[in-house]
């Protein structure tokens, strides 16, 4: 399975070039030298939750030639994104009231499990016991050991980047416990939120953050709280996933 991974569109942030960057990104993905099975968008579709911004974002995303799947970021709000999907992408899975925008996609060789960590006012998000149980149940029911890709907005590690992470929530540990338990079937955890390409691993399972389409965070590694915003997007990831391996390649292009 060949997946293009983009993130953090932040449409509606008037200080940046998000709309222009997203149009360019869609054009690059549509004209890429190979076809993707799907595009994944790991959260923060809009910056301020307005209907108009969702309309702009989905009008551009709907130009993609292949299927695409979005998840909730801390800037989205579950209900806002669910409402926007109903209006502008009605065939996209929408989850429900209890678990929010969590859903599974079984149309490919790799199963996609999309998680919703949205909690109002909490940058690092939260996952209720019900949401975690939903994830565990999906993995438990995967008797054929089909490879799995999990989509979740936050990078579930405490690594001192406090511009993005104002506290370490308890769901990180619960999530890592579940991923570790099913590490043989989970090939990739795809994230956003950090606006920069960053990787980690959970008990050997790769965790990959795609850069923001809107603006790139340039870190000062002496002091990770100092982040410089670069309005140019760095690009996107291509993930090639099969039963055995995942290979992730950052593709950059000039804006
Ligand atoms: Fe975010």
In brief:
This protein is α/β, with parallel strands linked by helices.
Could you please describe the fold and organization of this structure?
With 255 residues, the protein is an alpha/beta fold. It has one domain: Purple Acid Phosphatase, chain A, domain 2. It has 5 helices and 13 strands. The strands form 3 sheets. A 6-stranded mixed beta sheet has the order 4-5-6-7-9-8. It is globular and about 45 Å long. The structure holds fe (ii) ion. Fe (ii) ion (FE2) binds next to loops.
Q: In terms of topology, how is this protein built?
A:
Elements: E1 2-6, H1 18-30, E2 38-41, H2 51-61, E3 68-70, H3 78-88, E4 103-105, E5 111-114, H4 129-140, E6 148-151, H5 171-181, E7 186-191, E8 198-202, E9 205-209, E10 216-219, E11 227-230, E12 235-241, E13 246-252
Helix pairs in contact: 1-2, 2-3
The structure holds fe (ii) ion (FE2).
Fe (ii) ion (FE2) binds next to loops.
- CATH class equals Alpha Beta
CATH architecture assignment: 4-Layer Sandwich
- Please tally the helical runs, counting DSSP H or I stretches of 4 or more residues: 5
CATH superfamily: Metallo-dependent phosphatases
Mean pLDDT over the full residue set:
93
Largest sheet, spatial ordering of strands:
4-5-6-7-9-8
What is the domain total for the residues?
Answer: 1
The succession of helices and strands, N to C, reads: EHEHEHEEHEHEEEEEEE
CATH topology: Purple Acid Phosphatase, chain A, domain 2
* Poorly predicted runs: none
Notable traits:
255 residues, alpha/beta, 5 helices, binds fe (ii) ion
């Amino acid at each position: 399975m060949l997946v293009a991974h983009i993130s953090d569109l932040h449409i509606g942030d008037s200080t940046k070039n998000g709309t222009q960057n997203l149009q360019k990104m869609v054009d690059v993905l549509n004209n890429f030298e190979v076809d993707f099975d799907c595009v994944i968008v790991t959260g923060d579709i809009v910056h301020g939750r307005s209907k108009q911004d969702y309309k702009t974002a989905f009008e551009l995303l709907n130009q993609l030639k292949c299927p695409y799947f979005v998840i909730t970021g801390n800037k989205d709000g579950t209900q806002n994104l669910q409402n926007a999907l109903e209006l502008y992408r009605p065939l996209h899975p929408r989850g429900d009231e209890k678990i929010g925008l969590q859903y599974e996609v079984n149309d490919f060789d790799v199963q996609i499990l999309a998680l919703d960590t949205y909690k109002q006012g909490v940058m690092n998000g939260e996952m209720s016991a019900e949401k975690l149980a939903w994830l565990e149940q999906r993995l438990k029911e995967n008797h054929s050991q089909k490879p799995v890709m999990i989509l979740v907005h936050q990078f579930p590690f405490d690594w001192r980047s406090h511009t993005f992470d104002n506290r370490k929530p308890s769901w990180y540990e619960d999530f890592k416990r579940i991923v570790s338990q099913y590490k043989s079937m989970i090939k990739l955890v795809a994230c956003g939120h950090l606006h920069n390409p960053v990787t980690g691993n959970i008990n050997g399972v790769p965790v990959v953050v795609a850069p923001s389409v809107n603006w790139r965070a340039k870190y000062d590694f002496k002091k990770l709280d100092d982040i410089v915003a670069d309005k140019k997007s760095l690009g996107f990831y291509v993930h090639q996933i099969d039963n055995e391996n995942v290979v992730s390649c950052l593709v950059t292009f000039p804006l």
